[in-house]
Write a structure and sequence with these properties.
mainly alpha; 77% helix
Length: 87
């Protein structure tokens, strides 16, 4: 983009920055949602709720299926990985 284009786009800089920030937050939320460790924790909690009687078998099965779908997607896409970095 030339100098004139940059000058004309300058008023939109805050909007572009805001959109970038929103996209970063959404990407992190999605990464956490599909993170296999997070899903496994939720599965363990779900199991505890079933054993304590907080959940019925039907509700457990429905929620377990949803979590297993998330786990499959997370494992397939590599969600939750930090590309070689550790936390």
């Amino acid at each position: 983009m030339g100098l004139i284009g940059e000058v004309l786009m300058l008023p939109l800089a805050p909007v572009r920055g805001g959109l970038w920030a929103v996209s970063q937050v959404l990407a992190e939320a999605e990464r956490l949602y599909y993170d296999p460790a997070t899903v496994r924790s939720e599965l363990a909690l779900l199991e505890q709720q079933l054993e304590s009687g907080e959940l019925g078998e039907e509700e457990f099965d429905r929620r377990e299926d949803e979590l297993l779908d998330r786990l499959e997607i997370g494992l397939r896409t590599g969600a939750g990985t930090d590309n070689g970095t550790t936390r």
